[in-house]
Amino acid sequence: MDKIKCFEVTLDKTEQDIAESLAKRRYNAARKAGVTNAKIGPQSNHLTDLEGIGSEFAFCKLFNLFPDLTVGARKGGYDCLITDDYWKVDVKATKYKTGRLLARTSKTMEDADLYALMIGEFPTYSFVGWAWNYQLLKEENIMNLGHGNGYALTQEELNPSHHILDDLKNHVS
Q1: Residue pLDDT, tens place only, 42-78
Q2: C-alpha distances in angstroms, 161 versus 59, 70, 78, 101, 128?
Q3: Considering the entire predicted model, what is its pTM?
Q4: d(Cα 170, Cα 141) in Å, to the nearest integer?
Q5: 125 has which bridge partners?
Q6: Contact 40/147 with Cβ under 8 angstroms?
Q7: How far apart are CA 128 and CA 154, in angstroms?
Q8: pLDDT by residue (tens digit) across 14-29?
Q9: 129: left (phi > 0), else alpha (psi -120 to 50), else beta?
Q10: Distance between CA atoms of 126 and 119, rounded to whole angstroms?
Q11: Nearest residue to 112 (alpha-carbon basis) of 133, 91, 83, 126
């Protein structure tokens, strides 16, 4: 099998400090607002939030996008915008090298236009691929990986990371 081409990025010290602060503040804001913590796995709440924010920050850094630095409680939706065409991106993260792109079955087509998979651990991540909402959010992609049903695509089923900008341009044409 060919090695999947990917892009690696490491957050610098300042970016790490911002991510650490955001993780703490977002967790506190969400709990105060009554948003249920939907983490999967035994990791700490702080690590869950840190990996999520770290991977979002890394994706934005790769594409010279401004990350969402807001702190207020939120539920669902997207993490950043690819601003030329205002594509809503939901960034997903896993530490597993063979990890899948996962989304909860509560996700809707309106939540995001595309889903990006970042693999790694804070502060270094690799962008390995992505899928349009209509590619991921299909009944045939629902599976249970031990934590309830969710949408899942393997890395081999994703659009290659190095094609994202061309594919976005062609999608408009």
Answers
A1: 667 788 889 999 999 999 999 888 888 888 766 667 8
A2: 11, 27, 18, 13, 5
A3: 0.88
A4: 25
A5: 9, 120
A6: yes
A7: 11
A8: 999 999 999 999 888 8
A9: left
A10: 5
A11: 133
